[in-house]
Amino acid sequence: MQDLKVEKIIPYNIYFSISECKQLIDESYLVIDRGLPREYYYDDIKASEIVESILLPRVLGEVIYLHEEDSVYYSSIDGKQRILSMIRFINNEFPLTELKKLKELNGKYFRDLDSQLQRKYEKWGIWAILLKKES
Question: What's the pLDDT tens digit per position in 64-104?
Fold first, then answer.
């Protein structure tokens, strides 16, 4: 019988803002499509629901999962649709659509929000579980 080496995985909770997440992606420290690439499939209505849940605020109810590639590079395991929805909005790629509670924001892009609301959005925290290999 052959012995299999199983590496121990240690979960860590980490926190970063949407603007920090955008910076990680822009600088290629956070890779969204590593491993099992899936197309982005949220439409603007679903992406707007994510944005509205941040602006209300209410909890998304889920965290994202990341894998540590090495000490500074990460890849997403789960949460791609939510992360890309957040980043697409901050990049002004879609207007808010069919919001249920913040109807006055329908039709607005990130650039159209007042500076206080923009700041609130940029600083909203993302909780992630980072899976690290035991060193």
Answer: 778 787 777 778 878 888 899 999 999 999 999 999 999 99
Backbone Cα Rg of the chain: 17
Strand, helix or coil at 8? coil
CA distance 76 to 72: 13
The helix-helix angle for 115-123 and 80-90 (nearest 10°) equals 150
Instruction: Count Cβ atoms within 10 A of the Cβ of residue 6 and give its class: 0-12 exposed, 13-18 middle, 19 or more buried.
Output: exposed
CA separation (Å) from 114 to 29, 98, 132? Answer: 30, 19, 39
Neighbouring C-beta atoms of residue 90, cutoff 10 Å: 19
For 75, the 3-state DSSP assignment is strand
pTM above 0.70, yes or no: yes
Judged by DSSP in three states, 25 sits in helix
Beta-strand ranges (E) seen in 1-135 are 9-17, 30-31, 64-68, 74-78, 125-133
Give the C-alpha separation, 11 to 14, whole Å: 10
